[in-house]
Amino acid sequence: MTTNTDELMATCWTSAGDAASDRPDLRSPLTLRERIEAASSAGFSGFGLLSDDLPAAVAAYGLGGIRTMLADNGIVHLELEGIPYWWDDGAHRQESERVRHTMLEAAEALGARHLKVTPDGDDAPWDRGHWAEKFAELAAQAHDVGARLGIEFFPWSNIKTLHDGLRLVEDAGHEAGGVVIDTWHIARAHTPTADLASVPLHRIIGVELDDADEDVVGTLFEDTVHRRRYCGEGTFDLTGMITALRTAGWNGPWGVEILSEEHRSTPVEQALARAAESARTVLDRAT
Fold first, then answer.
1. CA atoms of 81 and 84, how far apart (whole Å)
2. Is the pLDDT of residue 4 over 60?
3. What pLDDT, in 10s, does the model give residues 119-167?
4. Is residue 182 a part of any domain in this protein?
5. Is 2 within the bounds of a domain?
6. How many C-beta neighbours within 10 Å does residue 256 have?
7. Which domain covers residue 15, as residue numbers?
């Protein structure tokens, strides 16, 4: 049975305010201080930051200032998210390398727990061996700065399911690599909840909790960006998923990732408080 000592992580979109991943400009309109203080006030001990928001944060506070701010607010788990086209050796390589360098430098300076990357959302043709090689390369770089690397699978991408993600990670074969398991993507890809119990613990980099209605509205991408629900307010078997993940050995931090028109239009302090309270409610219900 869980206790109220479960640690929560506010993933990047949960504290971003009026920002969304389907906009040309992904940056949050809020200052990093506003976001960190709101997360701390809501009881989060983990915090996620998107690569697009990192330059402004460094310019405003410096890496040392960010580290102090995190510590002063009781944030002990940091997730850095987003290296575009990390698999590409072609036209996107220069931009990808620039972001990669910035993220790795920040991960080392800030003591990041892990880096999170995403698949090809366009689901273009891809070479599995090449992707495994590039993932292993990035995992080694993360390891060198004291962090790990997780890939989050998307049902509309080339890495569609938990099992696709695990296959890539195993093909890559680096100890620092693993998957980030988001309950939205588990449910929408129709992955059996029981499958979560057998995921090797050393391959779970992070877990993200959220909920949704039974029916998908629009594309999967549109539904995930605009219509997620707070934990326990949708139709997902969250208690079953949490129980299965605990069976696998996962004990947190539990990410909370809420993306919706309702959430981003709510003042960040209230939005984060509701996100934390709803996540704790389902964690307390699970065994």
1. 10
2. no
3. 999 999 999 999 999 999 999 999 999 999 999 999 999 999 999 999 9
4. yes
5. no
6. 28
7. 8-285
Angle at 97 between CA 151 and CA 225, to 5 degrees: 45
Q: What is the mean pLDDT of residues 220-231?
A: 97
The count of structural domains within the chain is 1
The answer as to whether 3 is a domain residue is no
Helix (H, G, I), strand (E, B) or coil at 212: coil
Q: Does the pLDDT at position 1 exceed 50?
A: no
The strand pairing partners of 180, in sequence order, are 152, 206
CA distance readout (Å), 141 to 35, 102, 255: 28, 12, 24
User: Is pLDDT larger for residue 27 or for residue 3?
Assistant: 27
CATH of the domain at 152: 3.20.20.150
Q: Residue 52 above 90 pLDDT?
A: yes
Structure tokens at 257: 């990732």
Exposed, middle or buried: residue 201 (CB in 10 Å: 0-12, 13-18, 19+)? exposed
Distance of alpha carbon 239 from its chain centroid, rounded? 20
Greatest Cα-to-Cα distance within the chain, rounded to the nearest angstrom: 51
In the chain, the amino acid numbered 63 is L
Q: Which amino acid is at 135?
A: F
